[in-house]
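Researcher: I'd like a candidate sequence for this fold, 185 residues long. If you have to choose between options at a position, lean toward the conservative one.
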């Protein structure tokens, strides 16, 4: 019988590891995008398509796919992942920290041509990471992936919303494994 309580140091270690992986991917993406290089597709290599940096990681025989694109306004990255078990993960990560305090739990506003307005629950961590509820994103993300851009409004703790614009195209190669394995279209 397993316990429903989580070990807090273990959870913090896992989140710190995820943060480190995300920041490494963001840094690699920045380097590859700014250098204009396009690497051959291969496991554990960062590849580029348009504004998207993407990679695949071997997780004990299963593959986890990650893709990231940077906002036009700041050092904020939209991270999409399809975990080895087929679960999607969507997050917004600032390379350093958001320039305003985040609420622990908030509603992000997403807008695109195919999704005029959607409010999605999200949780923040260490003022530089926002994790979006994956169940709702499973239904909305296929529509967003078809759009040219996504505008995300992130609320300040006791203040206004801050808008971030992400270029979504081209993404047919970068997001294909995530689209097929996690979003079923």
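Model: Candidate sequence:
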């Amino acid at each position: 019988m397993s316990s429903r309580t989580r070990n807090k140091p273990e959870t913090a270690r896992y989140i710190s590891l995820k943060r480190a992986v995300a920041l490494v991917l963001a840094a690699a993406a920045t380097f590859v995008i700014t250098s204009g290089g396009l690497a051959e597709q291969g496991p554990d290599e960062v590849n580029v398509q348009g504004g998207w940096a993407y990679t695949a990681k071997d997780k004990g025989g299963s593959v986890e796919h990650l893709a990231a694109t940077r906002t036009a306004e700041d050092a904020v990255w939209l991270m999409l992942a399809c975990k080895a078990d087929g679960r999607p993960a969507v997050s917004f990560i600032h390379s350093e920290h958001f320039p305003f305090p985040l609420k622990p739990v908030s509603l992000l506003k997403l807008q695109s041509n195919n999704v005029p307005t959607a409010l999605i629950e999200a949780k923040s961590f260490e003022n530089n990471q926002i994790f979006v509820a994956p169940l709702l994103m499973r239904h909305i993300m296929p529509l967003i992936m078809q759009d040219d851009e996504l505008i995300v409004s992130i609320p300040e703790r006791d203040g206004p919303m801050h808008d971030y614009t992400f270029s979504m195209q081209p993404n047919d190669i970068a997001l294909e494994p995530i689209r097929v394995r996690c979003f079923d279209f």
